[in-house]
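Marked as duplicate of an earlier ticket. Keeping the data here for the record.
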Amino acid sequence: MALLLGVNIDHVATLRQARYALNPEATISEPSVLLAAQEAQAGGADSITIHVREDRRHMQDDDAISIRREIDLPLNLELANTPKMLAFACDLKPDFTCLVPEKREEITTEGGLDVLSHFDSLKESIPMLQEAGSKVSLFIDPEPAQIQAASELGAEMIELHTGAFALKSGAARAAELERLQAGSELGNSLGLQVNAGHGIHLENLRQLFYVKNLKELNVGHTLISRSVFIGLRAAVAEMRLAMEAYS
């Protein structure tokens, strides 16, 4: 089964905002998020992922709109389960929406969404997004109860949080792989498309291949880091090639 690659370009916007957040009227604002999406597409990306946060710390509304308009790839919009962000998603109409937890103090998303605690609100949010034309994914830890709840809510997809796997080593990493495999197996048995993301890079990719029946990996930080040295198109192509060994 071919493993798809979703390229998260949030950190391109992070770099831009480091200089231009306080000077939005600058005649040149770089690096260009739209160009990053184009380069990712040229490198073989299967979809583009962006996270528009409530505080707009990196991706801006215009970024999302321009990518939706100009890039001929599926757009995966990550967002918090809040009224304002849901309204934004319904206007943008991305191909996929991935509901994620969001904390003001975090630099990047840490940990999965607690579907059980937010079950009632998600029961209203998910149909709203689906009616606007998006397939819905929930970014969750590989816990059976969370996966079961995602299925009960009618989400089409889950994205298993691989952060714990990426941070650990030895026996602890092996245990995380077992959790991810069990989560993938359960999700597939419930008819969910199972994706994975967070902390994936070329050095741990082969170990992640232990987890079967994955459909797509969402990869961001390592690709933007690698692009500093070889360019984003080449970094995406390099990851795309490494992923061909998945079976």
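See parent ticket for discussion. The two ends are 6 Å apart (CA to CA).
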